[in-house]
Design a protein that fits this description.
Layout: H1 2-33, E1 37-46, E2 55-61, H2 64-69, E3 75-80, E4 83-90, E5 100-105, E6 116-125, E7 134-135, E8 138-146, E9 148-153, E10 156-161, E11 165-167, E12 176-179, E13 185-194, E14 201-202
Antiparallel strand pairs: 1-6, 2-4, 2-5, 3-4, 6-13, 7-14, 8-11, 8-13, 9-10, 9-12
């Protein structure tokens, strides 16, 4: 009976050890799998914005050199996801010679600041990946390349599919952005914010 008792005790200890290892390892695996990655691909500061109601115009160009040659005072060129892009902030209905229009997003919620920052980010992650709850001192707009984007704000949750764009909210709005589809989210995000304030700040939903 004694050997049988020791064997049972050993089995229990082994089972408990395996359970503990699973609990310790699983969160780190989940965190790695659900990481939401954000990369800045272009920045520009302006002392003043173009007059009137503003829209983000998103265009493709054959080469980065051509896109940069076509840049205006309120536009930014970048090479992202295997394509060349030109993002221009200006009136609705515009076009850039040599470019192919992909989307026009707006009107951008108005913002007044001593100096403005235009920023383009490339972001996304696997299904379930999400940002912390945060806010920006200005407005953002989205263009989804692949996957499905979800955005939670105090107004509710909205979704944007691949090939579609979404206009953002006014500055200082609490938000959480997440990958809401069954495939990886890949998106471009266009910002116009107050350059004198922190670009992103922790927030919460009250």
């Amino acid at each position: 009976m004694k050997p049988r008792t020791l064997s049972a005790q050993s089995a229990i200890v082994l089972a408990l050890s395996l359970c503990l290892m699973t609990l310790l390892v699983a969160p780190s695996i989940a965190t790695a799998q659900e990481q939401f990655v954000i990369k800045t691909v272009a920045d520009k500061k302006l002392k003043e914005l173009p007059a009137g109601a503003l829209y983000w115009r998103v265009e493709n160009f054959p080469t980065l050199a051509q896109a940069r040659a076509a840049e205006g005072p309120a536009s930014l060129a970048a090479e992202v996801a295997g394509k060349v892009w030109l993002f221009s902030l200006g009136p609705a209905g515009g076009s850039t010679p040599g470019g192919t229009k992909v989307a026009e997003v707006g009107p951008v919620p108005p913002i007044t600041a001593p100096e403005y920052l235009l920023r383009i980010t490339h972001s996304g992650g696997p299904p379930g990946a999400r940002t912390p709850v945060h806010s920006h001192p200005g407005a953002e707009a989205f263009y989804v390349l692949t996957g499905r984007m979800g955005q939670k704000t105090p107004h509710g949750i909205t979704y944007t599919e691949a090939g579609q764009s979404m206009n953002g909210h006014a500055g200082d709005m609490s938000m959480e952005v997440f990958s809401a589809g069954t495939t990886d989210l890949d998106q471009l995000v266009m910002f116009v914010v107050d350059a004198t304030k922190p670009f992103s700040s922790p927030s919460n939903f009250e």
